[in-house]
Write a structure and sequence with these properties.
This protein has 274 residues and is α/β, with parallel strands linked by helices. It has helices at 18-29, 48-61, 76-86, 105-115, 146-153, 168-173, 184-194, 213-217, 222-237, 243-258, 261-272; strands at 7-12, 37-42, 65-69, 91-94, 100-101, 119-129, 138-140, 165-167, 198-210. α1 (18-29) packs parallel to α2 and α9 (222-237) packs antiparallel against α10.
């Protein structure tokens, strides 16, 4: 019989829109296989509107919804590390506070872990939208098999973080999320793959992901360019990539980070995801 117990891990901070948070939580409440453990990390003080949504959901969900409040905003990686400590189950489904999961998302991922005990992490296709979830602006299609994932990871992030499900023991074994500006997830996946843990990506849509120009603006500037170069240097030092791949990746990614926002959006959608 398929294991059905899993935790959901979500982080929210004061800039989130209350209606988005409500939609995100309700998409988990609508899962074909319901969670018995929803950990919601409040990354620093929120506002009355967000707290109102959370209070209403606590009344609906009872002890299933475990709200963890952090005294100050410490960033996504720190919030998720804190949240993992409270997750009761071995399998953890990540969920962002402004996305909408397909109703069968978690059921499909649980099937993968049930049928493939060697898999430590699993994500799938995400469909980006701006206002209407049924109007798809772009799709993020990650590589399917572990061999393809390892090869892809040498150039780009091989998993869609907003819809990953992973084994808590595996994440903890490689040191969990660590400080790495906007790339905490990619850095974690690399350490998992380098340690020999296997991944799989379901070749079906699992999530409606809210996108827009702001998403591309976050991937801009010298700080982000330097962080990417640091990540590729780590790969080179660990013999995960060679010298030529290191140089090539640094040049391409720096060009993207320093490009105008419209061009960066085009590069991500038409070039970097190919």
């Amino acid at each position: 019989m398929m294991a059905s117990k899993y935790s959901v891990l979500m982080s929210v901070y004061h800039k989130e829109k209350p209606e988005y948070l409500k939609q995100a939580i309700e998409s988990i409440q609508a899962q074909a296989l319901l969670t018995d453990d929803f950990v919601l990390v409040c990354d620093g003080p929120l506002n009355d509107a967000l707290d109102g949504v959370i209070f209403a959901k606590q009344q609906e969900m009872g002890t299933v919804l475990n709200v963890v409040r952090l005294a100050k905003n410490g960033g996504l990686g720190n919030a998720l590390n804190e949240g993992i400590k409270y997750c009761k189950n071995e399998l953890i489904a990540r969920m962002d506070s402004d996305d909408i999961a397909y109703p069968d998302r978690c059921e499909k991922q649980l099937s993968v872990f049930d049928e493939h005990p060697e898999v430590g992490i699993c994500s799938g296709i995400v469909e980006e939208f701006t206002t209407d979830p049924n109007t798809v602006d772009a799709k993020r299609v990650p590589p399917e098999t572990n061999v393809e994932i390892v090869e892809f990871a040498k150039k780009r992030n091989p998993f869609n973080h907003p819809c990953v499900m992973y084994r808590k023991s595996v994440v903890k074994a490689v040191g969990s999320y660590q400080d790495f500006y906007l790339l905490e997830d990619y850095y974690l996946w690399l350490r998992m793959l380098m340690a020999g843990y296997q991944g799989y990506n379901i070749q079906e849509p699992l999530l409606h992901m809210r996108a827009g120009s702001d998403m591309y603006l976050r991937r801009a500037g010298w700080k982000y360019a330097k962080t990417q170069a640091k990540l590729f240097k780590f790969m080179k030092e660990q013999d995960f990539i060679g010298e030529w791949q290191y140089i090539k990746s640094c040049v391409i990614r720096s060009g993207s980070a320093l490009a105008p926002n419209w061009l960066r959006k085009f590069m991500f959608e038409k070039v970097l995801r190919k």
